[in-house]
UniProtKB/TrEMBL annotation:
One of its GO terms (biological process) is aspartate family amino acid metabolic process. GO terms for molecular function: asparaginase activity. Residues 11-231 form the L-asparaginase N-terminal domain. The keyword Hydrolase applies. It is an enzyme of class 3 (hydrolase). This is asparaginase. The keyword Membrane does not apply. The lineage of its organism: Eukaryota, Fungi, Dikarya, Ascomycota, Pezizomycotina. Residues 504-533 are annotated as: Disordered. It comes from Hymenoscyphus albidus. Keywords: ANK repeat, Hydrolase, Repeat.
Amino acid sequence: MATQAQLPEGRVLIIMTGGTICMKPSPDGEGLIPVRGFLNQGMAPRPSFNDGSMPEPLPVMTTATTKKYLRSLRTPPSTYSRHIRYTLYEFPELLDSSSISSEGWTQIATTVQNNYSLFDGFVVLHGTDSLAYTSSALSFMLSHLGKPVILTGSQASIFALQSDAEGNLLGSLILAGTFMIPEVCLFFHHRLFRGNRTTKVSASSFDAFASPNCEPLATITAMGAEVNWNLVCRPRSIARFDVLRRLDTAHVACLRIFAGIKPEMIAGVLRVPGLRGLILETFGAGNAPSGEDGSLTAIFKDAVARGIVIVNVSQCQSGSVTPLYAPATALGNAGVVFGHDLTTEAALTKLSFLFALPEITYEDIIQQIPLSLHGEITESSTAQFSHPSSKKPHLSDPQTAFAALGYAIAKGDVEAVTEMLDGDQYGLLEAQDYAGNSVLHVAALGPEKRVMRELLKRGASVHARNRAGNSALFLARRMGNGEMVGLLERGGAHLHVEEVERGGVDVGVGGGEGEGEGKGRGESNGGVGGVGV
Ligand code: ASP
């Protein structure tokens, strides 16, 4: 039995940007303002954030080249027999989130990037006012994300007697340090949402956020976290984590249609110099007045002809924009793009993201709007429901299925592996054997690079570690399997910081692109036998 001192630790970097969670009344009586020293004043005195073990400081990259050692704390063990070890980096200027802009998003994204290999997950503390915008923006800026980035805040300060701060922060910390959910998420009031599906729905209730068109990715109950793995989006190509540094928010606007709106007002907005995109918040399923003799429709048509991208989203919280009624159809015929069930926040930031891509054309953008880049939209071909795979489950229970898959991987049988994963109803990519090995660990020791490629393309996590704390990359390096090492690294794998601290495995293989044939191939089937969930 592991003693408390030996329990595994998930490492989390908390990035403090400001918001109510760290606010106190300003000395001049001008309202609440963010204050510094959150870790020492807000977290260290609370037993749920500090088990009193006084761990060593943790290194944090405060710029791409500056490393600082910051005080770290550790939670008591969670339901998952795991401590969360964390530190907190405060931005030089703490904001009320109503002032955040694309520079702030860049600062958050680069802080994650600079510290990506040092932590298992990231929690971003942020004001609630623009939290849904920041969550949406980051979801587009962070590509091939393999680790959780969870944004949270609170409706009342952590220093207030009655506050939601402790629950929101603790829930985020435990989720970020325990589950490899490779998405930008927003955690609030016991629920983990996909960030780009959220919207703020209350200025005072603790239940302040909703995700009307997408179920929560996880819910915290008294029994622990229930993760809805079927909903979790995973990377679908083999590539390393990367960041798009700047969104183009300067050329996008948003306009809410209201009953009686004058066409000249809309024409005025569409003539703003430099405007490239407009999010049009319409009635119901996407309807807007057409104006006398179609004057408004003509204004939209003219703007589209000038190359302005107009995206139709609904003012309603839930449901989707479709050509159901004649007014919505008329907008579609004028060249206005249906934004389906995009939130306004996601539509604005998606357009800002697309405009920031080099050499993207108007046609490319129009094509990308209805497609799901990071789960932000329900693609109409797969609309509204999910159905079980048409393939029969290969085997009748998860344990047998995982064991069969493990043996097929160890044998290097690509066809069998593909077939089993196509028919998978048990979430085998998340499963672990008695020693905590995932399918990727088994593949790392297996003979067949094509099996590894198949698993990576299906989004198997390169950051999962077995009970001994070893990643698949560590095992491949120990086997001296240079091809496997190269492939894993191309898929974003790096040694975990604890593996590096232990001395890693220096076998001199696996330069980033080292996938060429003819390098020493490791022995097959080593180590991981007797798979079972
Ligand atoms: N005005 C605050 C902010 O967004 C509100 C909050 O944090 O709840 O920074």
